[in-house]
Amino acid sequence: MGRGRERVGRLTGREAVVAATAAVYVGERRTGCAVLVDRRHLVTAEHALCVPGEAPGTYRIADTVEVDFPARPGAGNDPRLRATRLPLTVQGRDVAVLDLGEDAPALPEPVPMWPAQRLPQTVDVFGYPRDESATRGVWRTFTFPRKWQASHQRCRGSTWEVRS
Prior knowledge:
Layout: E1 7-8, H1 13-19, E2 21-26, E3 29-36, E4 41-44, E5 50-52, E6 59-61, E7 64-68, E8 81-85, E9 96-99, E10 107-108, E11 113-115, E12 122-127, E13 138-143, H2 146-151, E14 160-162
Parallel strand pairs: 1-10
Antiparallel strand pairs: 2-3, 2-7, 3-4, 4-9, 5-6, 7-8, 8-9, 11-14, 12-13
């Protein structure tokens, strides 16, 4: 596994997704969530990394954030992990990749991802909403209209699907 890397349990299905979902913090404020997709990288929405800019009404994207895996055994007792936003060549997409580095402590199993040829009709997602006072997380189900699915089939390589 490498320096300091041990796996935490073997979960499947929804339990695996919950375990691999991290709460994202910019400063002391929880701003969104991210999912662990390999031994050191998380995928999140770029808007979850927004911080106020210098001028009123402006913002910038944070280069460094902290993450925590609330469903991990002992969560809350461990310090948050530092994650660095990686530069992406894709522009105009609300996506960001965070790097935990090589020396992160024991982590949950990552949630496998692969590029999809077309969008599924229904997607279940798990996350930690900013408005949630306790970090318990919620599941949401989205159904995409068939017309919308068909129009996005051409986006091969930029549409991702989560598999557990």
